[in-house]
Design goal:
It comes from Neobacillus bataviensis. The chain contains 1 helix and 3 strands, in the order βαββ. It is an alpha+beta fold and 61 residues long. Strand 2 and strand 3 form a beta hairpin.
Length: 61
């Protein structure tokens, strides 16, 4: 009997816009496109941004 576990997770990147863009691109390239859900970007003080990537993890047991 097989079971499938689905979890929604988030990964947060914070820093300068260039650094965050590079880190998010690298992370998204490692994800299976079917697991990508959404991304939210927030501007913080001092020209720093925070990006939250929402993604699914699917595992067969």
């Amino acid at each position: 009997m097989e079971f499938t576990v689905r979890k929604v997770r988030t990964k947060i990147f914070t820093g300068s816009p260039n650094d965050v863009e590079e880190q998010v691109n690298i992370f998204l390239n490692t994800l299976d496109q079917m697991n990508y859900v959404d991304i939210k970007i927030t501007t913080l003080e001092g020209g720093i941004i925070s990006a939250v990537v929402v993604y699914k993890v699917v595992q067969k047991l």
